[in-house]
Design goal:
This protein is an alpha+beta fold. It has 2 domains: 35 residues; 88 residues, Glucose Permease (Domain IIA), CATH 2.70.70. The chain contains 2 helices and 10 strands. Strand 9 and strand 10 form a beta hairpin.
Length: 170
């Protein structure tokens, strides 16, 4: 009886482990790492919604939507999602852009005008600029990268609670 009970517990542990591995492998390596890092705060006040989601390109230079579009109005404050260092402030294709380096991750926001300059330290929740005119919609485009690889900022935002596997009943 004791051996049979141990076998049932071992089988359940093995099955749970295999399920966890399957879920982890189902994400690409970048997304899985990003999900583990989901500690960024939302960059805008108000309702949290997404107008357009991240669309990964098939190849590095192929078309895609390398970020998310969040509803925003001109003049709305944008805050740093995490502590970091300003990486870039300037104009790209007639849009104001700011990007912040957060350790191994980089966040970018457009159109955002900012009085900050490259090298300035920012803290999570600190205003880094305001939404400016010049976007393709009334929105804030938020991008995220790990190294040269783009990933969905939603994976880094602390908005989705982690899944918890519950123990099986005996």
């Amino acid at each position: 009886m004791l051996v049979r009970m141990w076998n049932v517990k071992a089988i359940r542990l093995l099955a749970t482990s295999l399920l966890a591995i399957t879920v982890a492998v189902s994400f690409n390596a970048q997304s899985a790492q990003a999900l583990l890092s989901g500690t960024w705060s939302w960059p805008l006040s108000g309702q949290r919604s997404v107008l357009r989601h991240y669309e990964a390109p098939e190849r590095f230079y192929a078309p895609g939507h390398r970020g998310i579009d969040l509803p925003a109005v001109t003049g709305q404050e944008v805050v740093a999602p995490a502590d970091g260092v300003v990486h870039f402030v300037g104009h790209v294709v007639n849009r104001d852009v700011i990007s912040v380096q957060h350790g191994q991750y980089l966040s970018s926001f457009e159109p955002v005008s900012s009085g900050l300059k490259k090298g300035d330290l920012v803290e999570r929740g600190q205003v880094i600029g305001t939404v400016s005119a010049g976007s393709h919609c009334e929105c804030l485009h938020m991008g995220a990268r790990k190294g040269e690889n783009y990933l969905s900022p939603l994976a880094l935002l602390a908005t989705i609670p982690p899944a918890v596997l519950l123990p099986w009943d005996d």
